[in-house]
Write a structure and sequence with these properties.
The protein is α+β, with helices and mostly antiparallel strands and about 140 residues long. Helix content is about 20%, strand content about 35%.
Length: about 140
């Protein structure tokens, strides 16, 4: 009998900066709530290409990737299955418009975030704003 291996699924999430705020989507599928744009990396696709594609599919924005922020890998970060996400910070161009599996799209400041925020995206957003406010990445991500 051949041994079968289970591996985490690979995803990307994108923090899209637009006019000093960040873009979030309201999910049309479970789990319902607000999230960063993102999704599953297709076979044969780079993380960067996936981030650009997912941003366009869900927000209708063209983006410029600025930096790879962090990879989040907690096995319970997605209630559906074990996923690992690499998060990118990007700048957006255009007018956000929901598409694909996004029910709605919004642009939010640090003090005006929507609720509920699903997955571990609230932690990601808190880490992002701490980083943007001058906390070094090495200090944010200490184990």
């Amino acid at each position: 009998m051949q041994q079968q291996y289970r591996n985490p699924l690979v995803t990307v999430d994108i923090i899209i900066e637009l006019e000093g705020k960040i873009v979030m989507i309201e999910r049309a599928n479970p789990p319902y709530g607000w999230a960063l744009p993102g999704g599953f990396v297709d076979y044969g696709e780079s993380l960067e290409a996936s981030a650009v594609r997912e941003a366009r599919e869900e927000t209708s924005l063209s983006i410029q990737l600025e930096e790879q922020f962090h990879t989040y890998s907690s096995p319970d970060r997605d209630p559906r299955h074990h996923t690992i996400t690499t998060v990118y910070i990007a700048t957006g161009k255009g007018i956000p418009k929901s598409a694909d599996d996004a029910k709605n799209v919004g642009v939010f400041s640090q003090n005006e975030l929507p609720a509920p925020i699903v997955f571990d995206h609230e932690k990601i957003i808190i880490d992002y704003f701490r980083y943007k406010n001058g906390v070094l990445k090495k200090d944010i991500f200490k184990a």
